[in-house]
Write a structure and sequence with these properties.
Layout: E1 2-10, H1 15-32, E2 36-44, E3 47-54, H2 57-65, H3 67-76, E4 80-89
Length: 93
């Protein structure tokens, strides 16, 4: 498994426009991407935290290459004040 954690700080006057787009991106990812297992969205004011689980790195790359992600990414680009992405690989015991 492959975990992706994203922290966004959204511009204060943009959060109400950002959240519906983020929810649509998450829902479409779960529905259309067979390798997307989890796509959770959490919020604290204008801070938005994503927790995503994919089958593997290739499934995440498929997500990044999807039409719906590219559309989302372009639509929210100017809404984001700060973004940090962290990627984790599962530790198998």
């Amino acid at each position: 498994m492959y975990a992706v954690v994203v922290n966004f700080r959204i511009k204060p006057n943009q959060i109400n426009d950002f959240l519906p787009l983020m929810r649509d991106n998450a829902a479409t990812s779960l529905k259309e991407e067979t390798g997307c297992r989890t796509f959770d969205i959490w919020r604290n004011g204008t801070d938005v935290f994503l927790y995503e689980i994919y089958d593997d790195a290739a499934a995440f790359q498929d997500h990044l290459g999807s039409d719906h992600f590219k559309t989302f990414d372009a639509a929210v680009a100017e809404m984001i004040a700060q973004k940090e992405v962290r990627i984790y690989e599962e530790v198998v015991q």
